[in-house]
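Quick one, T. Sequence first:
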Amino acid sequence: MRKTAVILALFALASSTLPGVCAQKPAKGKKLTFPNRPRFPKLPYLDTKAFEALKNRAIVIDARNAIEYEVIHIQGAINLPVEKMKKKTLQKIREKNGTRPIVFYCNGTTCQKSYKAGEKARIWGWKNFYVYDSGIFHWTQIHPETVLFFHKPVDKKALAKIGDKAGLERVSLSPKAFAKKAFSGQGYKVFDLRDRKERSEYPLRLPRVAKLNMDKFVHALKENRIRKNKLLIFDTSGKQVKWLKYYLDQHGVKDYWLLKGGVLAWKKAGLDARGKPAK
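Structure tokens:
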């Protein structure tokens, strides 16, 4: 038994190039801490300890969109959204920074953006890159001094806001409750943050609706072109509005409500375009 344990330990050591780096597929039958790793078994991963050792000499790339990056990011990280990441762009970053290792990260263990960025790099034949899939929220809890929240150092007040699930729950409404407020006659302004294709696939016919994508909404909010109260906001799945909450709080917006689960939850609840039970 002892001999077997030693062999397994040596195998684990041989299969990594850095402490905490692993490229092997997780063993079957175990509950995974990182559920997306089996989908990307050829990527080299960093745990937090290995990232700590590598960070100061690495090119750290945030694979999320610009809105997520502005809310919170590792100081010094380059924002390169995975959907806009091209071989030529990555090549320029490499040329500018020499042979330093590249580390991709995104939100956390269920976020796929860092995996997709790493997979692109692998397919393009890149070497000396890693994926830190514990993500920004885990890193912030351990090293808040290296993180920026709206481009400012994270203090205790900001740290309390980051990942505040209870606060998000307080401003989230079920589809029925959301529809009730929209048709209440109390003067709520509704914002549909979906793109044009998503709206055409499942239009909602709510009163006082403004159709803006996330980027345009945030831009208008920064320019004080969005009212500061009585807002109802929804997207497709409820994921975008989670990030929007940080902006709304940052700009002092009061009495706003988010559709929990987005339009997908609306459809699942069996509601029609006006929030009535579908026949």
